[in-house]
């Protein structure tokens, strides 16, 4: 494709709207820096969507001349994709290329619309769930941030303990993981908070629920934190804009004089016999559930997570009113973001101590793991 018909003004404009990256869908290659030497260079090709000659790719006897210097008819491409779109007119039709251009330039516009003060430090926290590792990546976290924030650093703050030889059916696992989480938080995050920095933090966590609750306690609700949820459908960490009409429901026990228990039947139903199996029948069981059927992918929006925080705060106050400052036994079956927010809602100087239980097949159901005082 000839570029002689393109004005310098439109060449510069195309570089600007494309951010100097290949506009072929999924490529996004930087075209102004050599990836091996890191030296500045120009490896870009300016391609005409409708060829600037009638005999060229997608050329037209009338439109080619009219669109030869039209910015809406130009794409910035790398060498590989420039050759591909020129050599295969059947696959790379005019509508196809126009859509690639639109998507790329719209994404660049939305990214650069983020205000300069909207940076966020990414926190990744993972711990083995049974024999399964927690798949967390800086790249997927960055994708979830956009288009509200941009990463404050080139690397995430990672709190996980790697190569753990124990599984979550052992007391050693819980002791080591809780100690590591506290130490990593003290080393990597607490100094930032002590300095009074107004940093924003974006949290991506996959771990057994007691550890997620502990993470939330450490972060607390005094800091500027946004917690993300791993969705299954669609598979993304990005909060969705639409959710089902779901409400949280707090079921109160008829007898409020026994051992206080708070059950979260959100991602699954926790039946009362499982609680009594762990603590006996001398229990007053409070339960937070949802208006629909509990499932592990209901928590789609930030609004629903905010409603969860308000529900938990109200439940804590009601339970303390009836039971005083005795230990509150927590039996959680809920999404990861809700687990972290439960910890953030809990106030150490006001709320009851929490004994957190975890469901484990090897332990024959729920057993006590972490105590938060």
Automatic annotation (TrEMBL):
Residues 181-372 form the SMODS-associated and fused to various effectors domain. InterPro entries: HNH_nuc, SAVED. It comes from Bacteroides clarus. Pfam families: SAVED. This is SMODS-associated and fused to various effectors domain-containing protein.
């Amino acid at each position: 494709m000839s570029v002689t018909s393109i004005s310098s003004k439109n060449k510069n404009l195309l570089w600007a709207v494309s951010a100097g990256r290949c506009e072929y869908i999924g490529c996004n290659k930087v075209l102004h820096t050599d990836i091996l030497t890191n030296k500045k260079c120009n490896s870009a090709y300016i391609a005409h969507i409708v060829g600037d000659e009638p005999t060229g790719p997608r050329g037209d006897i009338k439109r080619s001349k009219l669109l030869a210097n039209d910015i809406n008819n130009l794409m910035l491409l790398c060498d590989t994709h420039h050759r591909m779109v020129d050599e295969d007119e059947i696959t790379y039709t005019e509508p196809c290329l126009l859509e690639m251009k639109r998507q790329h330039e719209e994404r660049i516009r939305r990214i650069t619309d983020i205000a300069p003060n909207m940076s966020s430090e990414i926190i990744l926290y993972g711990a083995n769930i049974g024999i399964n590792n927690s798949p967390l990546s800086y790249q997927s976290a960055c994708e979830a941030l956009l288009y509200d924030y941009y990463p404050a650093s080139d690397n995430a703050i990672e709190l996980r303990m790697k190569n753990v030889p124990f599984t979550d059916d052992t007391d050693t696992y819980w002791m080591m993981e809780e100690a590591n989480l506290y130490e990593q938080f003290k080393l990597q995050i607490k100094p930032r908070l002590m300095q009074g920095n107004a940093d924003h933090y974006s949290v991506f966590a996959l771990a057994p629920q007691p550890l997620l609750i502990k993470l939330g306690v450490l972060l607390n609700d005094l800091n500027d934190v946004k917690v993300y949820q791993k969705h299954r459908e669609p598979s993304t960490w990005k909060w969705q804009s639409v959710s089902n009409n779901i409400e949280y429901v707090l079921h109160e026990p008829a007898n409020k004089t026994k051992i206080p228990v708070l059950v979260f039947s959100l991602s699954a139903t926790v039946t009362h016999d499982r609680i009594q199996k762990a603590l006996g029948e001398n229990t007053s069981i409070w339960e937070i559930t949802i208006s629909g059927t509990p499932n592990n992918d209901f928590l789609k929006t930030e609004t629903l997570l905010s409603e969860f925080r308000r529900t938990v705060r109200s439940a804590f106050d009601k339970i303390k009113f009836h039971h005083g400052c005795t230990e509150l036994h927590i039996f959680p079956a809920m999404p990861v973001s809700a687990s972290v927010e439960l910890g953030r809602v809990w106030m150490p100087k006001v709320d009851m101590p929490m004994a957190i239980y975890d469901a484990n097949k090897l332990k024959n159901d729920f057993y006590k793991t972490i105590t938060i005082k």
